[in-house]
Design brief:
single chain; 256 residues; alpha/beta; Spore Coat Polysaccharide Biosynthesis Protein SpsA, Chain A; nine-stranded mixed β-sheet; two-stranded antiparallel sheet
Length: 256
């Protein structure tokens, strides 16, 4: 199994901070956000390589960071502005092509996700589903929050029945987070999705398309999760992690 971390977005809601910092390299409890994700990925024994995809503006910072990592490859998608981004699904396909991963099982994580869930448990659950893919799902507790995410309907056996991306009127509060496992037999379908002219951004849209064609299961978790998209979530995530590490909390976020 190979892991892919999606880190090519431009984090416009965190400007001007992200004019000089890659969001995924911002310190959370005094270590880069992406390091927290790698800690979870490395709990999965099957993963023997990690691929990080980023953009041309952030590539040098990621390449410097990767010098201290083991079995991590950085891919520059060549874009330099939000208007010309490839989108998360476009970046996924770029890594599949460059690294020759079309016949590999893939664990795909967004680089701005911080969570307590066990990716090892997640992958073990997925292994029991045969030729199927999976998405991690969590009850976010309110429809206001749910409107910001992909909302999932699952059957009694956890198979995904419906997936709606950022609905104005969410049918439930069961949200997908950007943590996916794609079976090797489904990986070639990423290219099919894009060739049909579908939206290349928002990784949940691939699940929305895929579950109508192949089995996709929702793996439920209830542990803590942060979608670090704005300054409020950034400060909250930093302070929660600082408490755990025995560090003093802060009233305002700073990367210093």
């Amino acid at each position: 199994m190979k892991a892919i971390v999606l880190a090519a977005g431009y984090a416009t809601r965190l400007r001007p901070l992200t004019d000089t910092w890659a969001k995924e390299l911002l310190p959370i409890a005094e270590k880069p956000m992406i390091d927290h994700i790698l800690d979870r990925i490395r709990d999965v024994e099957e993963v023997d390589a990690v691929h990080v995809v980023t953009n041309a503006r952030k590539a040098a910072s990621f390449e410097q960071w990767a010098r201290e990592q083991v079995h991590v490859t950085v891919h520059d998608d060549g874009t330099s502005s939000n208007d010309h981004r490839l989108g998360a699904i476009g970046d996924l396909q770029l890594v599949i092509d460059r690294a020759g991963l079309e016949h590999e099982d893939l664990l795909v994580i967004a680089g701005d996700n911080l969570f307590d869930l066990s990716l090892a448990d997640y992958v073990e659950y997925w292994r029991g589903k045969g030729v199927a893919s999976a998405v991690a799902v969590r009850d976010v507790g309110s429809r206001e929050l749910a409107s910001r995410y992909g909302i999932v309907e699952i059957a009694d056996d956890d198979r995904v029945l419906d997936f709606v991306e950022k609905p104005a009127d969410p049918p439930s509060t069961l949200a997908a987070i950007a943590a996916y496992v794609y079976h090797r037999e489904h990986v070639p379908l990423v290219r099919a999705y894009l060739d049909e002219g579908n939206e290349p951004d928002q990784p949940g849209r691939l699940v929305q398309w895929l579950h109508r064609r192949e089995p996709v299961y929702g793996w439920r978790f209830s542990s803590q999760w942060f979608d670090v998209g704005d300054f409020e979530q950034l400060l909250l995530a930093d302070n929660v992690m600082r408490r755990r590490a025995g560090l003093p909390e802060r009233v305002a976020y700073s990367p210093e």
